[in-house]
Input
Amino acid sequence: MAKNLEISTLLDYYGMLLTDKQRETVEYYYDDDLSLGEIAENTGISRQGVRDSIKRSETILLEAEEKLGLIKKSGMLKESLAEIRKNIDTIDEKNMKVYRSDIINESIKSILNELKKLDEII
Output
């Protein structure tokens, strides 16, 4: 994962662990692509202070993912949901061709509704 995307993703998951000023600085740098000088001007912090804040923030975000693994777990969950959908499609196709069971159709609809809820969470 490219560093900018990695830090932006970490910020989405763990940004609440940063102070408002740290979060603002990291967002300016990684999301808005501002230079250290531009951020210093916007925030009233020295250029070196901006750099130090970004580095501290990166460390906090990386350590949070290392300890909690939410991004990794989210990716694994997405893969599992995709596999479940694939299996649902196989069951649905077999049901339509062979069984034509209303009970199976209703169960498939229910499972798909639950998967939709999970998609909204992750």
Observations:
- The radius of gyration is 22 Å.
- The first helix runs from residue 3 to 14.
- The chain has two domains: 3-68, 72-121.
